Amino acid sequence: MKKSVLSIALALVFGFSATANSPIDGEKKEVNVSESKITWKGYKVTGSHEGTINLKSGHLEMDGNKLTGGEFVVDMTSITNLDMAAGEGKEKLEGHLKSDDFFGVENHPTAKLVITSAESMNKNSYSVKGDLTIKGKTNPVTFVVSIYENKATATLKVDRANYDVRYGSGSFFDNLGDKAIYDEFDLVVDLAL
C-alpha cells in the first residue's frame, strides 16, 4: 500500500512538473492587418496581372521565438488589380475575379490558411505546412516563412485548379489557345506583427 501511494505521489509530482514547463497554449502574435499586405500575381499565355487582397484577421502562434502555428483569414471581396488603369478594363477584371468564374466571393467572401506545422530551417526561416481553403475547398500547401522582429514574409504558389477556379484553365478546358490562364498563381505575403 505504501509503495503504491509513493508511486502515485511521484507520478503526480513529475507529471505536474513536466506539464508546468511545457506550454499548453503558445503565445499568439496578432497580425496588424492594416499594415500587412498580400500581393497576388496571375499568369496567362499573353502576359500577367497583379493586384492586392486584404487580410481580415490573423495570428502566428509562437513558443518563445519559435513558430508553431497560425491562422489567417483573407477578405476575398477586397481583391483589386494594380497593373491596369481605370477605364482600361480594371473594374471589369476585378468584377470577373469576384464572379463564380473565379473566386465566387458572394458565396465565399473569405479564404483561410491554417498552419499545421512549422519546421525550423535556420534562425529566421521555417518550412511550413498548412491547410488552405478557397471557395470552400481545403488543400494542403507547403511554403517558407521568414520572421524578422515584427515582420514576417512568405511566398506561396497556389494551384487554382485544386479549388475549382476553372475559368480559362487548361486543366478543365481544351483548345484555349492564347486565352489560356495558367493554373498556378503567386501570393506574396508581408505581415506586420
Automatic annotation (TrEMBL):
> Which InterPro entries does the record match to this protein?
Lipid/polyisoprenoid-bd_YceI, TTHA0802/YceI-like_sf
Q: Residue ranges of the Lipid/polyisoprenoid-binding YceI-like domain?
A: 28-192
**Highest taxon above the source species:** Bacteria
Record-linked SUPFAM superfamilies: YceI-like
The region annotated as signal peptide is 1-20
Read off the Pfam families from this record. YceI (PF04264)
Assigned keywords, A-Z: Signal
Q: What is this protein called?
A: YceI family protein
What's the source species' lineage?
Bacteria, Pseudomonadati, Bacteroidota, Flavobacteriia, Flavobacteriales
